Amino acid sequence: MGKRSSRMTRRTRVSGRRARPFRRGGLWGAGAALGLLALAALALVFGFSGGRGSGLDPGEARISFLDSGMSDCSVIEAGGGVVMIDCGDSGSAGEILGFLEDRGIDAIDLLFITHPHADHYGSAVDILESCRVEQVVFTSVPDSLQPTADGYFQLLDTLERLDTPVEIASVGQQYQLELGCIRVLWAGEEDCEDLNACSLVLRYDYGRRAALFMGDAEFSVEKKLMESGAELWADILKAGHHGSRYATSADFLSAVGPGMVVALCGLDNQYGFPSEEFIQRVQEAGAVLYRTDTGGSISFVTDGNYLRSEA
Ligand SMILES: [Zn+2]
User: Fold this and answer.
1) Fewer beta carbons within 10 angstroms: which end of the chain, N or C?
2) Is cis: bond before 21, omega within 30 of 0?
3) How far is the C-alpha of 5 from the C-alpha of 224, rounded, in Å?
4) Domains assigned to the chain
């Protein structure tokens, strides 16, 4: 499919599925989510924004995990398409924008906010103001857990002012990229016990390679994912909740079978992430652990067959 026709097709579709209006406290409401369920099966093609990664050969995709302190930010460069999964806390905009500049990325096709905690959306306003973001995707949150932070309302106001297309993800939804595809494996549910359990869980597949992004999901979500029969195997596992002791169970590691596990966390953080229990489970699973607190940002490059790390 040519770039011009792809863009036109996508524009047309997106314009018909906007999650409006942006009433405070209403964006993640059940009504909006239900209104979008019928569209869950749509597979769109992303990858024509003008965002371009650098240093990649044709056919290569890069998955990067940024050292954004005690927060989450991952970036997938897949051909011409750029996907960001979470965007750090309010203090990490400089780091994230610097990364994008270094890579020659001037637009983001899809920005997933796995859940509305400030260490996952905190730099969104700066990124939206500095970089063209084609679409933002949120998770579904029960009314009882709707966030009330000023930063959250500021994000909603900015999205509305910039007229950025927004949607609420559903399980099974797919986003076709130029190289590979992102699938939604988990998107919260009505009786989520907390916001972490509402985290989007996303899977990126390209050829024979896959990466799993857990947001801040912990044991309860892992258990439901395993019971659901979802495709969980992956080469790279972005560990849930920054390497908390309550995430990345031995059973889940066995189901995923990753060669590499990535923990996004800040140096000497007050929560003690990554926990000793988590580190031990990863070691016992035989996976290599990458920590952004001690190792900094890490990238992996794949052409769908080979997979190599990049410092
Ligand atoms: Zn978090």
Assistant:
1) C
2) yes
3) 39
4) 3-13+27-304 (3.60.15.10)
